[in-house]
Predict the 3D structure of the following.
Amino acid sequence: MRNVRALVMIGAALVAGLLAVILATQWINQQARLGVGKLAVLAVDLQPGSRLVPPMLSVVDWPTSSIPPGAFTDVKELDGRVVKVSLQRGEPVLESKLAPVGAKGGLSAVVTEGKRAITVRVNDVVGVAGFALPGNYVDILVSTRQDAAKNDQAKDQAISKIVLERILVLAVAQEASRDDTKPKVVNAVTLEVTPEQAEKIDVARSVGTLSLVLRNQIDDKTPRTAGARKQDLLQIATEPVRQPTKPKQAYRAKPVPVVTAAPKKHQVEMIKGMSKSAIEF
C-alpha cells in the first residue's frame, strides 16, 4: 500500500514538472516574439567611402530593447548612401556612420564638412616608420632656416618648429581603412585640415622639410613651443649684439701763446757843443 502511494506521488510530481516546463517554454517564446524587430546589417566588410547597394545588406531579427538609435529596418532606405567609417560584416548600419544624403563615394565623402584633405609626401622617417595610420593624430614639424634680423650676428639659423597640432590622418597612400594596426611605409599621407592649415602646410613644405610627429589619440592638449635652434641644441649662450663704437681721440691741449718781453733799450746822452741829444741802442 505504501509503495502504491509513493508511486502515485512520484507520477504526480513528474506530470506537474512537465506541465511547468511546457508553460514556461510557451511564455518565453511568446515574449521573444513580442520583443523582436527587424534591423538592417551589413553582409560584407566595407571601407570608408564605399557606396551601399542592396546586395551588400541583409535584414535580421533583433531584440527591440537593444536596437541602437539611428538604425534602419529597410535596405531600400540605404541604397546609394556612403559609409564614412570602416564597417564589418553583421554590423548594424547607423545614420551616424553614413555621409550626408547625396554624397558621392570616395574619400571626399569622409572629409568633415568645412575641412579639406591635403596630401603630404613622406618617407620611412617622415612618416613615423609607417605608424601614422588612418584615424591617428599627428603634429607637423618643419625644419628650415630662420632669416636673420638686421644687425644680427647669427645669420640664417637652422630652426625646427611644430607648426600644426592634432591633425587627423585620413589615408596612407590609397588606403583609408582604420582597422589595420600594422605599420605601413608609404610615400604619401593624406591629412584632414582646415583651409588655413592647408595654406600653412603648403608654405611649410616650400621653405623646409616636413616631419610627422605621432601623438596620443586622446591627448587634446596643444602646448606652445618656441622652436629649437642650433645654439639650443648645443647649449650655446647667446651674447647681446654690441654696436660698433668710434675710437676715442686723444686729448690735445690748445697751444698757449708765449708772450716775450721786449728787450730793454739803453740810452746815452751825447753833448756836442751847446746841443744835447739822446741815442738809444
